[in-house]
Amino acid sequence: GLLSDGRAFAQKTARKDNYFLFPSKSAYIMYFTHYYFSRENLDRDQTMRRMMVDNAAVPVEKIIEAPRLASIGTTSEDMKKAVETCSPILCLVNAPDGRCFVKRIDGYPGNAPSPANTGS
Asked: Mean pLDDT, to the nearest integer, of 2-23?
């Protein structure tokens, strides 16, 4: 959620007895976006991985639909601002059709096979 002073928070546990506290909405957005784009998550989340392999990036509109980001009303502009100003591992890519995508700077996972399909 968002606090009146501009800080944001999220539950750490399902029991609702422990919370993350972020200094800003952008910090909250980057924390969860970095998780979604982490190697660990991309190796496990086949939907996200497919989008990354098929397009080398994920549309901003899809990312902001993720439950943690949608819960604080993240807009496309919020996501773009957070990536541009706060992320050392992600960048924005503008498509010819006007849509904006987020991708990892290192190109992971690229066309690499899924660990689930390689037996590793």
From this structure: 79
Q: Can you spell out the DSSP letters for 6-75? A: S-EEEESSTTS--EEEESSHHHHHHHHHHHHTSHHHHHH-HHHHHHHHHHSSEEHHHHTTSHHHHTTT--
Q: Which of 39, 27, 21, 45 is nearest to 87 (CA)?
A: 27
Write out pLDDT tens, residues 54-77.
Answer: 778 999 999 999 999 999 999 999
- 46, 59, 72 from 54: Cα distances, Å: 12, 12, 28
**Angle formed by the axes of helices 76-86 and 25-36, nearest 10°:** 80
Cβ-in-10-Å burial (0-12, 13-18, 19+) of 76 comes to: middle
Strand partners, 96: none
Q: pTM, whole model, 2 decimals? A: 0.81
DSSP 100: E
